[in-house]
Design brief:
EC 2.3.2.27, 6-stranded mixed sheet, elongated, 13 helices, 57% helix, 3-stranded antiparallel sheet, coiled coil
Length: 529
């Protein structure tokens, strides 16, 4: 080998030796790391073994206690077995008794079924008998009506011609007005909310009336005043304040007198112990009021040839008669009326509903109560109304809020609201009829005047006066003959009470009601003497 080859061979061997040394170092290092890990594992195992020994010692120490607990449990289990055996014996006795009772129940149910069958037969026979009696009574009443009608036909015709037509307004002289108001004495002047008004209570032709004076700020000319008189004379509806007459010289209008005054004075009287506050309105009366106002407002919005908006509907514009029937007044002459005016009326009506619910002038109370929790609504209701049925209060609150949010429901109108209110009123009547709630009408506020009260059905729904010649119309309600005939003559074909279309113009004398009214008047005149 040449020197060069020897050098190369030696270099190769050197590299191999170097690699072997490196491998030996790495193996030694790995052995050292393995030894350290083994040492750590040994330490860990030793510690774990010590812990296990401690646990074993603890378990051995607890073994006597566990044995005692086991013996106690065995004793309790033995006692339970004994109790179970006793209970089983009692249960078997009860089952035997139950079997005997079931046999007796079966026998009694069979006897009851037989009795029910016999009772049904008896009831059926009774119903058939009652039906026959009613048929005979109906035939008798028809014959009596025909005989009476034939006898009194001419008398009724003559009497109707003699009676002054009350639907026509009358012009009073200044002397008559001054005499009736005692020279516009403050004693005759009416207050509202503690403030004087331009309205005077008076008596004309033995009838209580309210006379309102109009200043130059209200009517700037005689033509404007006469236009207002003509407009108000057309507002004939059971829930619109009726105009009786006027005086052009004094520029005053004579209205029917509403004995229970203004709704605002009853709801928002500042003195909790005042006469009107103590008088209050129960919840059923309040439902009737909102229903009455809804019907009156519906009448205005459906007026022909164009609708009429009230423009300022609030509790001060609602008056109540002696029976708490509500009537709207102070309707503005409609120079123009668009949808925004009608929507404004609907919003005002919604606010009125919520005020009647709470007895406060803050509609937000009801909305917040309903949004939070339905039961919270009870906390904001007027306590003077008594205990409201929750479902009716919620429905009224929903209607009120819907009216205030009319901008979200462009199709909402008073006709739809009248249908909803009719459902609410019907539900309230059913609750009262079923005896779920006792409701009584409030007493008349003016006990010192006009104390002679008649039942509501004695009053003509149109004139609000005691009827002299009551007749039944096609809607089933009784009216003064003059009033309903005038109503029909003016081209109206709807019911004054329900605003629904009448099925005909036939008027039937209500002799029974007439006799009742006459007897009541005779008794009152006798007691007065």
């Amino acid at each position: 080998m040449t020197i060069q080859e020897k050098k190369e061979a030696l270099r190769i061997k050197f590299l191999e030796i170097k690699e072997a040394i490196q491998l030996s170092r790495e193996e030694a290092k790995s052995h050292v790391e393995g030894q350290a890990k083994a040492q750590w594992a040994i330490t860990l195992c030793t510690r774990r073994a010590e812990e296990i020994d401690g646990c074993i010692n603890d378990e051995l120490a607890r073994k006597p206690d566990l044995k005692r607990e086991l013996d106690t449990t065995k004793d309790e289990l033995s006692e339970l077995h004994t109790e179970v055996e006793v209970t089983k014996s009692k249960l078997s006795s009860i089952l035997e008794l139950q079997h005997e009772l079931s046999i007796k129940m079966q026998l009694s149910s069979v006897a009851r079924s037989r009795a029910e069958v016999q009772l049904e037969k008896v009831l059926k026979q009774r119903m058939d008998t009652v039906k026959e009696i009613e048929e005979f009574r109906g035939q008798r009443d028809v014959l009596r009506r025909r005989i009476t009608f034939c006898r009194e036909k001419d008398a009724i015709g003559n009497a109707s011609m003699l009676i002054e037509p009350r639907l026509e307004y009358k012009e009073f002289s200044a002397a008559e007005i001054r005499t009736a108001t005692d020279g516009f004495s403050n004693l005759m002047r009416l207050k509202s909310g503690g403030d004087w008004t331009d309205v005077y209570k008076a008596k004309l032709h033995h009838t209580s009336v309210a006379i309102k004076l109009y200043s130059s700020a209200d009517v700037d000319s005689e033509d404007t005043f006469l236009a207002k008189v003509k407009f108000l004379s057309l507002m004939r509806h059971p829930h619109m304040l009726s105009m009786i007459g006027y005086c052009s010289e004094l520029r005053c209008i004579v209205f029917e007198y509403m004995h229970n005054g203004c709704l605002r004075d009853i709801l928002f009287s500042g003195t909790r112990g005042s006469k009107r506050r103590n008088y209050g309105l129960n919840w059923q009366a309040r439902i009737c009021i909102v229903a009455n106002v809804c019907t009156g407002l519906c009448f205005l919005h459906r007026a022909k040839p164009r609708p009429v908006a009230h423009g300022n509907l609030n509790p001060s514009k609602i008056l109540l008669d002696r029976n708490n029937m509500a009537k709207i007044y102070d309707v503005r002459i409609p120079l123009s009326c668009d949808k925004s005016d009608l929507r404004s009326d609907i919003r005002a009506y919604g606010n009125l509903v919520l005020q009647i619910l709470t007895g406060r002038n803050w509609a937000r109370l009801v909305e917040e109560a309903i949004m939070m929790d339905q039961s919270k609504l009870i906390e904001v209701l007027d306590p003077m109304a008594g205990e409201w049925p929750l479902d009716i209060a919620l429905e009224l609150g929903r209607i009120g809020i819907k009216c205030l949010s009319i901008h979200e429901d462009k199709e909402l109108n008073m006709t739809n609201l009248a249908r909803e209110m009719e459902k609410v009123k019907k539900l309230a009547d059913e609750i009262v009829a079923n005896g779920e709630c006792v409701v009584a009408n409030g007493r008349n506020l003016d006990d010192h005047e006009d104390s002679t009260e008649f039942p509501n059905f004695f009053l003509c729904p149109i004139l609000q006066e005691v009827m002299k010649n009551p007749h039944v119309a096609a809607d089933g309600f009784s009216y003064e003959l003059e009033a309903i005939e005038e109503w029909l003559k003016n081209g109206r074909d709807t019911s004054p009470m329900t605003n629904l279309r009448l099925k005909g113009n036939l008027l039937t004398p209500n002799h029974s009601l007439r006799a009742l009214i006459q007897d009541s008047q005779k008794r009152q005149s006798t007691s007065t003497r």
